[in-house]
Amino acid sequence: MAKPDREHYTEEDLRKAWVDGPPVLNSTVTLVDYDPRWPQLFDREAERIRRILGDTVVRLEHVGSTSVPGLCAKPIVDILLVVPDSGDESAYVPALEAAGYRLVIREPEWDEHRAFKGPDTNVNLHVYSAGCPEIDDYLVFRDWLRTHEEDRKLYADTKRDLASRTWKYIQHYADAKNDVVDEIMARAGRPRTRPA
Fold first, then answer.
1. Which of 157, 147, 126 is nearest to 61 (CA)?
2. pLDDT (tens digit, 9 = 90+) per residue, 12-29?
3. Is 8 a domain residue?
4. 152: domain range?
5. How many domains, in total, are found in the chain?
6. Is residue 9 in a domain?
7. pLDDT at 7
8. How many whole angstroms separate alpha carbon 14 and alpha carbon 10?
């Protein structure tokens, strides 16, 4: 999902959020057809994360395009991890890092969002605090696309069109999807508001 308070990330936003600076893409985006192995990769990662963090895990969900059967996606499994307080990094970051996860994004001003890359599987592990509204956004969008073929096709067509363009940062590609995401979320009964 995208930051709800603005249309696009600025260069400054990206430099501030990425722990070691934002990776430059300067290319098109690779999308692949749905892979039925993605849920299995999620299950394996979820088991590992639960083993590492134990009771610190409030909720763990497979989200993003790899969680929607039939939807094309970047071949990266998105995982939503909910912890009691994502701002309390000492409660989960050292354990994840010891297991090979790498903290890549820190956004304390945006719902205390943190993101990690996986140790041996291409994953984006997004961490939020319990009660954060972004959690429901991820789940409503996923569940709507799983059950509404027309919107799944609309989203796939939009993604393919945008992926064929050259983007400096992958975040710019993600930001370019905001309008179609907002349109679909409105139909799903969870409209998101953005500044004009």
1. 126
2. 888 888 898 888 899 999
3. no
4. 14-187
5. 1
6. no
7. 58
8. 6
